[in-house]
Write a structure and sequence with these properties.
Blueprint lengths: L2 H95 L3
Amino acid sequence: MTENDATAIALLAHKVDSMNDTLRNLTDAVVRLALIEERQAQASLALERAFKTLEKLEARIAAIEQSDVLQKQTSNWVLSGVWAAAGLAVMFVAKKAGLI
């Protein structure tokens, strides 16, 4: 074996070691990318669940707002009836007392 052959083999061994280091780095990068992709998938699913919950809450709020309108209308009717009854009671008392 000549000195040139030994140098060539040493150079080849160095290049193989360098390629192995590069492959290790690429493997680490691919693993990290897979973890990031998994986390993004989980975040996407969580966001989808949040939007579904938000839609349900919006429907419930709309129903509550609709019933609130009916509640206010009913309250106004009852209040008007109470004032009318109070007015009639005052008129009745005034008539019995001889004020009218």
